[in-house]
């Protein structure tokens, strides 16, 4: 099952820069043990699978599509952008969102 995650999504989840994750994905560098463990957790695969040492047997978690709204790509992009904003702008956007909900 494809998780429909971008490099930026995975990088954010495993707490590395997008550029670093891109190098990991292309084989340009090896992850630290901590990063490897985060990757295993977020992608729901074993270290053996990520390192190409075995074949993955899907677990129940990977057989289900993400059902939380926060898993939608547009929500993830929005959250990434919000994290980069000044707190006063985040507060302002919160007020705008509340106003839109009242419509």
UniProtKB/TrEMBL annotation:
Compositionally biased spans, kind Polar residues: 56-65
Region Disordered, residue ranges: 52-72
CDD domains attached to this UniProt entry: HTH_XRE
PROSITE patterns: HTH_CROC1
Superkingdom, taxonomy of origin: Bacteria
Domain HTH cro/C1-type, residue spans: 5-50
Gene Ontology MF terms in the entry: DNA binding
InterPro entries named in the record: Cro/C1-type_HTH, Lambda_DNA-bd_dom_sf
Name this protein carries in UniProt: Transcriptional regulator, XRE family protein
Organism: Hyalangium minutum
């Amino acid at each position: 099952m494809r998780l429909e995650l971008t490099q930026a999504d995975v990088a954010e989840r495993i707490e590395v820069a997008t550029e670093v994750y891109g190098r990991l994905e292309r084989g340009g560098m090896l992850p630290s043990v901590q990063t490897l463990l985060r990757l295993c957790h977020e992608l729901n695969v074993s270290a053996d699978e990520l390192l190409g040492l075995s074949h993955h047997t899907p677990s129940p978690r990977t057989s289900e599509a993400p059902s939380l709204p926060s898993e939608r790509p547009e929500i993830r992009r929005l959250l990434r952008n919000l994290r980069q904003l000044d707190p006063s702008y985040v507060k302002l956007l919160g007020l705008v969102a509340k106003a839109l909900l009242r419509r």
